[in-house]
Input
Amino acid sequence: MKLGVISDLHVDVNKAYPIAELLAQQAQQQQLDVLLLAGDISNDYTTTLAFLDRMAALCNIPCRFVPGNHDLWQQGDEYPDTGALYRLYAQHPACLVGRNLPLGGDWVVVGETGWYDYSFGGAAYTPQQFARRALGGRTWQDSLFTNWGQPDAQVHEAMLQSFAEKLKQTQDKKQIAVAHMVTAPQFTVPTERENWAYFNAFLGSSAYGQLYRQAGVRVSIMGHVHYRKQVTEGETTYLCSCLNYFSEWQSRDPAKEVAEALAVLELD
Output
């Protein structure tokens, strides 16, 4: 079985490029059996859902996703809080929130958005400073476009418990865990970069990696940080494979960028 993995498509920012068509072409060329999207399809739920419909029309394989923080941004008044938008996504048949995806060979995919608990942030900052989500003239945009109605740590804990329940339910399987948020410290931004000792706090949580190690998760898929990187630690392979904004691409060729961003896992 061949599993394709990609995240951070940002199809609205990258609207000049036919991302859906290029991704569908790659799925066919790579002879994928399943395609997983690890969040941040767009900044607006209508665009994200339209993209999922487009992928369903273009691909003859299952295409599954977890919503990223950008997908959960509230751009209007239709959904009064982020939780309502999160529940909207969970109802979508392609969403991994609230359901598992059995694969061949005793493999199973479990998914959740995940959130941050500031554990990747520098020790020099207090929880109160992190809660402001702003430093040095820069504001973490979730503070403007998300409203969970509760502290970040509580949102993270709910996501963590959701993952723990799914992993317990599938403990007899070879587990692939898909989150949008970062699950291992190797994927945080080097603190030599200005203010990232602070902003790393909003990338994810070390608790996910701890849970995965305890559960024996085989593969941890993530996004959010705009890396293309793979690390194996113990029994777990950590994979981040982001398409990113066109302004971050190393080339001017969108087909090449999609092909290079798409990670392919061959499962036994």
